[in-house]
Write a structure and sequence with these properties.
The protein has about 290 residues and is an alpha/beta fold. It folds into two domains: about 160 residues, Rossmann fold; about 80 residues, Helicase, Ruva Protein, domain 3. The chain is built from twelve helices and seven strands. Helix 6 links the parallel strand 5 and strand 6. Helix 4 packs parallel to helix 5. It is globular and about 60 Å long. The chain starts with 9 loop residues before the first helix and ends in a 25-residue tail after the last helix.
Length: about 290
């Protein structure tokens, strides 16, 4: 469920600055309306097929490889035909996770876990009878306790076959499922994929497509600035997006409509962009004299 705040946060304020400065009607690099890349579209199409036959699907990848974009695409796809309740808070016990699911289904969740499970199963069959698919999504599933995952798997066994539980997380989740105690979960996985880092050509095409979407010219970033952003993005969509937006903010500060190396480098020298080997180190402390024996 999307939350809307009446007071703009710092990110919203930055986007408003960029839109005002460049004369835009839409937010650049908006995660809510990004078109899926070709490999993401392929994964999305496969997930839609598996949503009709039960079991589990795993969507894995490093932070920033596009998992959240896929999740949003599933949620937005066809809400009248495919119901996609999302559990984002995975550092919870099974007790609390049940209540988050009940809340997503707008079910009264007073009572014991068994009652919540019964109500969820009843709601799943109610959805099935209307001809809809049920696709619960567990985000950051690698953080969910293993016993909670096992109980969720048992709960989904009672759901109708026109459902699929999608686990989105980082690659360590796959290592967790290889343990013999989790074989019952792994044996029900019908599809799994690890989202890769992207080639530089794909990252560059992504940036230019986002400029086209909001009506900015390709020369908004100079060739040198674009090349530096592509290299520094390291094949990660989120990292690339954040670097582009931060560079545009620097252009607003400089009152220029062109992003050059000056603006990009001003972003890259910020501590959170620097590698450990590039980070400044504290001066060495003088050695104290060794006391005489």
């Amino acid at each position: 469920m999307n939350e809307h705040f009446s007071v703009p946060n710092s990110s919203t304020h930055s986007l408003l600055m960029i839109r005002s400065h460049f004369g835009l009607q839409r937010n650049p690099f908006d995660t809510e309306s990004i078109t899926l890349l070709s490999h993401q579209q392929e994964i999305f199409d496969i997930l839609r097929v598996h949503a009709q036959q039960g079991g589990l699907c795993l969507v894995l990848g490093e932070p920033g490889t596009g998992k959240s974009v896929l999740k949003q695409a599933l949620v937005n796809h066809d809400p009248k035909r495919m119901i996609t309740p999302v559990v984002n808070r995975t550092l919870h016990t099974y007790h609390n996770t049940l209540r988050i699911l009940c809340q997503a289904f707008q079910i009264d969740f007073e009572g014991h876990d068994h009652r919540c499970e019964r109500l969820l199963v009843q709601e799943a069959f109610k959805i099935h009878r209307t001809g809809k698919m049920l696709v619960p999504i567990i985000d950051d599933a690698h953080l969910m306790p293993a016993d909670c995952l096992r109980k969720l798997r048992l709960l989904c066994e009672d759901f109708p076959h026109s459902h699929n539980l999608i686990l989105i997380g980082q690659p360590p989740l796959l290592q967790l499922l290889t343990l013999s105690i989790n074989e019952e979960i792994r044996s029900r996985v019908t599809y799994s994929v690890v989202l890769p880092r992207l080639a530089q050509e794909t990252i560059e095409a992504f940036i230019l497509a986002q400029l086209d979407r909001v009506g900015l010219g390709h020369n908004t970033f100079t060739a040198e600035a674009l090349a530096l952003i592509v290299r520094s993005g390291e094949g990660l969509l989120r990292r690339t997006r954040n670097l582009c937006l931060s560079s545009l903010i620097e252009a607003v500060r400089d009152q220029t409509r062109t992003v050059d190396l000056k603006q990009v480098n001003r972003v890259l020298i910020q501590p959170h962009w620097r590698k450990d080997c590039d980070a400044p180190t504290a001066p060495a402390l003088p050695l104290l004299p060794t006391p005489a024996p």
